[in-house]
# Entry
Amino acid sequence: MSNIECDLVADLLPIYIDGKASEASKKFIEEHIKTCEECKEIYEAMTADMQLPNPVKRKRRFKIPILLKIFLGVLGYLFFAIIVVVIINYILTNGVL
# Structure
């Protein structure tokens, strides 16, 4: 077949395989694949099942124990309270307001 038709079919094949091609495109691709061995091989290669390597093992996520979460939360609130007290003390002793 002509090189332009093969290029067109190569561009449309992914859409055709996904089932999103229009009826006219489907008909054109099917007719072309019947007559062009090169495009038929490309189509078969694209639709063949691929053997994927073993999946990558996921790393375990580090889980923070609940007591540590509580401790860190209380520590954060204490730190915030100390900062507020220091600011208020500074304002009152230096007469900023």
About this structure: Residues 62-97 form one domain. The two ends are 88 Å apart (CA to CA).
